[in-house]
Design a protein that fits this description.
PH-domain like, elongated, 2 domains, four-stranded antiparallel sheet, 47% helix
Length: 267
């Protein structure tokens, strides 16, 4: 395990430890939910308010931590996958720290310290979003440096092949290198492809979708590309007899567009 994993474990363990320390000082009815006023709109019994809320705060970061550790065990020398691990590790650390802060604030308020939980939450969410944004930018910079240092020369060869850090195209299929979350490649035969569309990157069609679904209906899935916001073209592939589509970006969109056009797949 890496150092960041031990940090996450310590933060997760601090949640129940904090609950145990505060439990004797908690009121019989604890405020556990606020809307837009300093007065809670939901209360729980002392035991539930202390330990059930602690359990709720623990579940998600623990699940992510287990995934992080399992993926790190089977990681390869693929630098793009290692960037994905970096992103997932620090996202889990940020989330677990945020949940610890929220849980501790709830206990402190119930202990008798008078402050506004809604204001605290607004500040906390702001810090959370800012931290995630910084993490995204950091992951994008790491991927850009990796691509630059690799010196990859994207081109279409005479036999119609293409390869970069994101996809690999042969005569009969395309491989998305980081399709599954948190890692894993997917291969699609061109005989299964109905068409490929090109779109100008916008907020609505996946410009900022680094990995995962690209719309509210889960109809478009994007393989990982932490430098996607800087790409000039988004490709959307429709696979025959499939409800979902594949949205993806590449390092040389002009070359890939020409390749799909030569195969008669580009709309």
């Amino acid at each position: 395990m890496r150092k960041i994993h031990w940090f996450i474990i310590v933060v997760i363990l601090l949640i129940p430890v904090t609950g145990i320390l505060f439990y004797p000082y908690m009121p019989e009815k604890m405020g556990t939910h606020w809307q837009f006023s300093k007065t809670p709109d939901c209360y729980m019994d002392k035991f539930e308010g202390t330990f059930l809320t602690a359990l709720i705060c623990i579940v998600t970061p623990t699940f992510l931590l287990v995934i992080n550790i399992l993926v790190s065990i089977f990681k390869t020398d693929n630098k793009s996958k290692n960037i994905g691990l970096f992103f997932l590790d620090y996202l889990t650390a940020i989330l677990s720290t945020f949940l610890l802060a929220v849980y501790a604030a709830t206990l402190v308020w119930n202990y008798g310290v008078d402050f506004s939980i809604p204001i605290f939450m607004c500040i906390g969410v702001g810090v959370l979003l800012t931290s995630v944004l910084i993490l995204i930018v950091s992951a994008m910079n790491k991927q850009k440096k990796m691509m630059d240092s690799a010196g990859i020369n994207n081109c279409i060869c005479s036999d119609g092949k293409y390869k970069d850090g994101l996809i690999e195209v042969s005569q009969d299929k395309i491989i998305f290198k980081d399709y599954y979350f948190p890692m894993g490649a997917k291969s699609v035969n061109f005989s299964e492809v109905e068409y490929v569309q090109t779109k100008k990157p916008t907020l609505w069609n996946g410009k900022w979708r680094l990995h995962g679904t690209g719309d509210l209906l889960f109809r478009i899935w994007f393989p990982a590309d932490y430098n996607r916001p800087s790409r000039d073209t988004i490709f959307v592939m429709k696979v025959k007899n499939k409800w979902t589509k594949i949205g993806f970006t590449v390092e040389n969109s002009q070359a890939v567009s020409e390749l799909f056009k030569n195969k008669g797949l580009l709309r």
